């Protein structure tokens, strides 16, 4: 019979306090809490959580190790399938993956798998893995985000000599420039994960823009790389195409978050400028919108999230929405911007919006929003941040022979990551368009396997 | 130092130098806490593995870059970024005659373009404008590769007394014929260069020095309206058909962080060379 024990709540920074700092919101379990939560797992004969995880972490196995109190053994179980457990425990949408399929969730609350994974990653001793013997075959990985890191570490474990090329000055991709400090601390958590990948023998070269500094062709023809994995990420920020988007005070979420996360604008000792004004409207409902909104709030602004559907359709992780509401962010639902007005000096004065109602379900199964005629109204604001998605970056596809693109501009790649050019593989947002960290990692892992098969003929 | 305020540096960057072409730029970060500063490449040597940058002291970050002494290293140098000049893809025929309008620090990146054309047998005249004679830079270098070099100063302290566009009008009225123009300099100077070239019927390309963070298309800070469409200067530029650029918007957007930058400049304590 299912236990009736409730889920162990996780300690968090108080909402009022955290709204004014960039320290991590969730404080994580201690050993006693973790063991208590781990003991709720039913150890199903056919664990649905494993199948629902994009990298198939052996969840009941690592949870069993926690119950035994052997955290290092739990870490070793996770490490067989995931190279970034401290990241995934924090940023995965567990409610639609592992926890979403947990049997306990049918009548009560699922096991807090994400929080347990995080506990293991944060508390395991840093035993450096044995570096496998090199097979002398060089593989290049383009981009040091989740896809690239997962691919690189799997290849390194198989003995390949892997070099990861990163365009920015710090490795990590979206984990570095996109996801804020208060969700994923950089100097502690992310650095430790990156160091773990480097300890497998993976080399990182920052400040190299593939498609400009070097090309995929030059890497293969001149630098001796036998295969290349492209995990270059989501690309160019989209705008809505409404009047006033180029006014001063309108930013892409990418710019706003990069200034704050990668360039540390929130810290006084860094030189990066950032602009919020008194009031900020963030347009969009995904994780990026939540990150931008909560960052603007911490920088001292009053923040509204403007979203054209309802709370039920918000694509963001549930925990992020919940935290955003707790912190005092206002959600203007069923609201769609139609224009950004000018204050007469070329800066934002207001966001003109129209009220929406939900109509018939669209292809994605979500009910599509329809404007209510004559319902336009204005929200006075200093700053507008657009978090409405991205379109693929043409830099690599334009400079690499033989790479076909989808209609939307993403790289064509099969399930294993094979592109239309032999020896060149791809995965993550560069193929699928903006998705999640864990899906990108899954693609990176599958590509590593495919690269190994390709190179062994 | 080229002038008390403008500094030229040769930076060792073999991969970058091997890939650089006229018209492209790079991004420099002085130290761990510095900004990413986009700068046009003003010379390069693939064999020796260096590029040249020219910086004007206009803010706390550029002051940090200028404070570097020979032998020191920047935290980061990345590039080349942006597309090469149009003529690199398709060499103009020998019957073409190009005129360059250069202003201020924008004179430096004109040099590799003129040099490239010179090496490919295309004739190019260069008009360099500055407020006063002490601010004229790259004159010797340009003289060695340009067909004709015209120097202009607003105060008449050297060469033609007046702005570069007035010099261009004078040359055309005296019979000079140009098949294309390239303007690189402050936004306002490029705006007026476009107006003059439109009047004279000369097609003109401008190189836009917009705000940028990453320089690879990711942030969109560099967006400009060209022919009514939003374009990203870093991946689609930096050069555009000048007659299609919305300069008024571009100038406003360039000043977007002025308030924050003034604050940084006033409160900035230089850490370079103090063990950070």
Any key phrases for this structure?
heterodimer, A: alpha/beta, five-stranded parallel beta sheet, B: 276 residues, alpha/beta, seven-stranded mixed beta sheet, five-stranded antiparallel beta sheet
Mind explaining what this structure looks like?
With 457 residues, chain A is α/β, with parallel strands linked by helices. Helix content of chain A is 33%, strand content 16%. In chain A, the strands form four sheets. Chain A has a five-stranded parallel sheet. In chain A, strands 6-14-7-8-9 form a five-stranded parallel sheet. Chain A is globular, with a radius of gyration of 22 Å. Chain B has a seven-stranded mixed sheet, with helices on both faces. The longest helix of chain B is centred in the C-terminal third of the chain and has 14 residues. In chain B, helix 6 packs parallel to helix 7.
In short:
The complex is a heterodimer of chains A (457) and B (276). Chain A is of the alpha/beta class and 457 residues long.
